[in-house]
Amino acid sequence: MIEMKNKQLEDQIEKVLDANKICSFATVEGAKPKVRYMALFHEGLTLYLATNRKTDKIDEVKDNPNVHILVGYDGKKSSDIVQIQATAAITQNNALREKLWTGEMTKWFEGPHDPNYVVLEITPSHMEYMNGEDEPQVWTG
Q: Is pLDDT of 72 > 80?
């Protein structure tokens, strides 16, 4: 593995994030991992996941903020894939909730100011980018 932190690698990772609106999101429940699919938003390398504050994942993040995200696998050998080790923080920042709000969220929330609508802010510490051809490249924060 090639370990680096450079603009070219960050750009490659952002392209994968831009191309994928769904991710696998893993938390720790007790001593075991728990994975689910979630809608993915991002600004640069900071990721955001919208969720309900009454879900198990919120309790799991409160107990252990260490999370893992997998983005990009489409079943093909040449898939661009990013694995992300990170920490999650729960926020009810109104500006962020408004920015991430989509009409589709009305299935779960009354609006962007619904008290149950929260955002998980994901801060990566280690990311592994793989394109199916070259050796994996590692970004560390």
A: yes
As a whole number of angstroms, the longest Cα–Cα distance in the chain is 46
- Partners of 70 in the β-ladder: 24, 83
79 Cβ contact partners less than 8 Å away, ≥ 6 residues apart:
72, 73, 131, 132
User: How far, in Å, are 1, 23, 28 from residue 51 at the CA level?
Assistant: 34, 13, 17
- The rounded Cα 81 to chain-centroid distance in angstroms is 13
- The confidence band for 33, taking pLDDT boundaries of 50, 70 and 90, is very high
pTM, two decimals, is 0.91
According to the model, what pLDDT value does residue 77 have? 63
Strands 41-43 and 81-91 turn out to be unpaired
Task: Tell whether the model's pLDDT for residue 3 goes beyond 80.
Answer: no
Beta bridge partners of 25: 36, 69
